[in-house]
Amino acid sequence: MKSILKKIISITGNTIFFFRKKNVVRSEVKKILVISLYFRGDALMNTPALRILSRIFPEAKTDIWIKSRSEGILDNNPHINKTIVFDHFKTADYNDSSKPFLKEKINFIKSVRNENYDLCIDLTGKYSTALFALLGGFKYSIGLNYNGFGFCYNKFVKMDTQHTAGHLAGKYTEVIRQGLELTKEEFDSASETDNFRNEIYISDSSRNEIRKILSDNGIGFGDNIISIQPSAGWKAKEWSGEKYSQLISHLPSGFKIVFIGSEQDAENIKSIIKNSNAPEKCIMLSLPMKLSAALISVSDIFIGSDSVGLQIAGAADVPSVALFGPTNPGFSNPPGEIHKIVYNKLFCSSPDNEQYCTRDAGKTCPDIHCMKSIQISDVVKQVNSLTENNTNKKYQIAE
Are 121 and 50 in contact (CB under 8 A)? Predict the structure, then answer.
């Protein structure tokens, strides 16, 4: 039924708005707005596309619209002129308010129209962002769309990022390539021949602040650190607190273990540490995003689910062990040998060309067996594989 409705919307919209279809004249683009309204990890996976834009339009100013949940993750990025934060467009079936916020939306659209953007690039692709692209007063607009609203853009990129194999970061850059009709030579030069590594820019002040916080908690500059983020975008992606508790005593003895999360995660993390056999090995830090990123960047290993912490580790070139369950690691795990995956593919898991499992990314799953099937020994094995060849022998491998 949904697919039929999408086709009806698409056919009707394309019939009414056929006159809007046009190619982007690049010489006319001086000011760009990128729409990135999913979660923090998704915003980081948009950074290779932002980098390509800055190379194609070196004189243009690129602003990015995000939600407040992504604040801080794109700070100091040299490819961004300004970050705009506005929450009141629904882009997910979870963790978003269903209130209409009509007055706020109208005022926001007016403020954007006053900015006189030449080009809008929608990397979110929902009906709400498509309608925004239609109403925002842009000279040109490019977008992908999941809801049949491709007619809202001057240049619709027919791509379903959730239902085709390949890493999300590469797909977002493909929107830029197709939308701007870049030649292979232009795209290879701008992307450094398919370099889709995320970018994060952590200030010296944030690094200095996190080192002081660590020092105040008995962790020195030369200590080895494992940072662990037990939380994820939704509960189905999280490993159990009980297993994290058991994991602690099996990690290499020379490491300091730092659990990170928001204030909402604090009780769960306290319980994890309290119920472990080695609480003395651990500390908990509830930090703003910029300091969590700084902590991960000075860590030796990151452990966590498919989460923003994993994307930060990839961007900061920090070795990671990622625990995947209801999401497909081929879509979001950082590239490279230093990023290890723990993933048990079950009958209900994602096919290779699907981002989410057959249980709506676990949100309709009664038992989340994919995450429950991950054993402590699976995680320890991958941690040891990262440490055994390290030339810094300040720690010992756990047995």
Answer: no
| CA-to-CA dists, residue 125 to 25, 156, 215, angstroms | 22, 10, 44
For 298, the token pair is 């000075």
Contacts of 15 (CB under 8 A, 6+ apart): none
- Beta-sheet strand order (sheet of 31-35): 82-85, 61-66, 31-35, 119-122, 140-143, 155-156
Q: Tokens 């309204």 sit at which residue? A: 37
**In the chain, what are the domains?**
2-190 (3.40.50.2000), 204-386 (3.40.50.2000)
- In tens, the pLDDT along 143-171 reads 999 889 999 999 999 998 999 999 999 99
d(CA 399, CA 49): 43
Q: What is the pLDDT of residues 16-46, one digit of tens each?
A: 988 889 999 999 999 999 999 998 999 999 9
Report CA-CA distances (Å) from 324 to 114, 226, 277, 342, 362.
43, 19, 25, 6, 11
| Cβ atoms < 10 Å from Cβ of 127 | 18
- What pTM was estimated for this model as a whole? 0.92
